[in-house]
């Protein structure tokens, strides 16, 4: 009796799952009622004759995000799906994902500190308007360039401020001075000091990192970085965060260069409630890994290619 029922349930299951027949058509073929077909299909599941496996395209991303959260002690990881593993597509994908995340978390009375760079500029362009009150948007480091290259510092602050119905607070000076004495004089200016202090008070910071190589925009903005500094950075630096070069353990590489840099210090940055890193791409992998490992960030927004590479890094 059970063997007959087993056989009949398997036949019904094959017709239903493999031949795409409706339950009514199966009933007609087997000479039984439609409710009997339904019961046979359930019986086939219960006995293990049928095993249904669901392939969720988002499951891998969620699992990978969870693994990176655990690996780097992060509170949130958002992984954007870039159609191609090239810098342009990666920046577009992570920029949009970062815009969605920032829109979701910003609330009344937040102070948002922003860095600069093309990934953040992409984010700022994608950011939707949100009706919030008393939000402030401040530049975390100087952004004036001595070359034709654009840091997008002004555009990023303007666009983010506009999205949250406020006016941006700019730091219209270079991020790096030729000598420490001039930098200290500038920092003691009342206007500059107030902006730097507001950057320290920001509860949300959203930044990117750069590689410590010729691909770094810092080497092409006309700032004074002598051959000795360049050699030291090329040998020891993993990347830069807020234009401060750090090694694979997150420690400042060149104290003299760091003392000439204007903007939030890494120890100040690390105290913020929400510290968002928006970065992806092979050339930034070492910089991302070191910044995360050092605990500078608690939110990562990246692409699937970078996320997979980070998972494999020691």
Describe the model:
It comes from Mitsuokella multacida DSM 20544. This is Deoxyribonucleoside regulator. Keywords: DNA-binding, Transcription, Transcription regulation. Helix 1 crosses helix 3. The model has no long low-confidence stretch (mean pLDDT 92). The chain is elongated. It has 2 domains: 47 residues, Arc Repressor Mutant, subunit A (Orthogonal Bundle), CATH 1.10.10.60; 249 residues, Rossmann fold, CATH 3.40.50. It is an alpha/beta fold and 314 residues long.
SSE order in H/E notation?
Answer: HHHHEHEHEHEHHEEHEEHHEHEH
Question: Would you tell me the structural class of the helices and strands?
Answer: alpha/beta
What number of domains?
Answer: 2
Q: Distance between the terminal alpha carbons, to the nearest Å?
A: 59 Å
Helical fraction: 40-55%
Give the rounded overall mean pLDDT: 92
What is the CA-based Rg, rounded?
Answer: 27 Å
Under the CATH scheme, the architecture of the largest domain is 3-Layer(aba) Sandwich
Question: Which spans have pLDDT < 50 for at least 5 consecutive residues?
Answer: none
Overall spatial form: elongated
Give the strand tally.
Answer: 10
Mind summarizing the main beta sheet? 7 strands, parallel
CATH domain fold name of the largest domain: Rossmann fold
- How many alpha or pi helices? 14
- The strand line-up of the biggest sheet is 1-10-9-5-2-3-4
């Amino acid at each position: 009796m059970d063997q007959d029922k087993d056989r009949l349930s398997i036949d019904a299951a094959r017709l239903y799952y493999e031949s795409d027949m409706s339950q009514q058509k199966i009933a007609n073929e087997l000479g039984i009622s439609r409710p009997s077909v339904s019961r046979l299909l359930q019986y086939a599941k219960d006995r293990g004759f049928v095993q249904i496996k669901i392939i969720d395209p988002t499951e891998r991303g969620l699992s990978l995000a969870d693994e990176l959260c655990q690996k780097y002690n992060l509170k949130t990881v958002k992984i954007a799906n870039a159609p191609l593993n090239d810098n342009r597509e990666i920046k577009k994908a992570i920029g949009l994902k970062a815009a969605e995340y920032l829109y979701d978390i910003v609330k009344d009375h937040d102070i948002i500190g922003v860095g600069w760079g093309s990934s953040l500029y992409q984010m700022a362009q994608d950011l939707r308007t949100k009706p919030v009150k008393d939000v402030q948007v401040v530049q975390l480091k100087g952004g004036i360039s001595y070359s034709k290259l654009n840091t997008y510092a002004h555009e990023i602050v303007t666009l983010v401020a506009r999205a949250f119905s406020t006016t941006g607070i700019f730091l219209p000076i270079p991020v790096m001075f030729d000598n420490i004495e001039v930098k200290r004089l500038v920092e003691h200016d009342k206007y500059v000091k107030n902006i730097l202090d507001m950057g320290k008070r920001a509860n949300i910071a959203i930044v990117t990192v750069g590689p410590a190589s010729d691909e770094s925009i810092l080497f092409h903005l006309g700032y004074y970085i002598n051959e000795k500094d360049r050699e030291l950075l090329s040998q020891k630096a993993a990347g830069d965060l807020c234009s401060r070069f750090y090694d694979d353990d997150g420690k400042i590489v060149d104290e003299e260069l760091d003392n000439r840099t204007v903007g939030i210090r890494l120890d100040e940055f690390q105290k913020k409630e929400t510290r968002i890193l928006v970065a992806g791409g092979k050339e930034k992998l070492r910089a991302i890994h070191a910044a995360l490992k050092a605990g500078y960030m608690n939110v990562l927004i990246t692409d699937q290619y970078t996320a997979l590479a980070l998972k494999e890094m020691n």
